[in-house]
Amino acid sequence: MVEHSLRKNGIGTINAIRVVRVETTSTTFAMVTPDDGSSRLAIRIGPNITPTGDVCFFVGDKVAYTVVVSVPGAFPVALVKTR
Fold it and tell me: Which one in 12, 24, 33, 63 has a CA-CA gap of 20 to 30 Å to 41?
């Protein structure tokens, strides 16, 4: 039997941005508090700069996010500013 993945969309606010370093690799995560009252999400945002070098995400930004559910070990997959 094949498990299907589902995408769940939500709206929330970034309340922290952290760089997590594992050995020689570092990854940036945004901690998002969802508007629906569920617990905070750590969303991997990768390089948080535009091709011109501008920072994309800041603490306090209102964002939309997409989470893949029903897939073991899956990370939230998208983060987009809404204002």
Answer: 24
With 0-12 / 13-18 / 19 or more C-beta atoms within 10 angstroms meaning exposed / middle / buried, residue 33 is middle
C-alpha pair distances (Å), 28 with each of 6, 19, 40, 42, 47: 24, 4, 16, 10, 7
Token pair recorded at residue 37: 């009252």
Range of the domain at 74: 6-81
pLDDT tens series, the chain, 83 aa: 556 667 778 899 999 998 888 788 888 888 999 998 888 888 887 666 666 767 788 899 999 888 776 666 666 566 777 76
Q: What is the pTM of this model?
A: 0.71
Q: What is the DSSP letter of 47?
A: S
The CA distance from 15 to 5, in Å, is 28
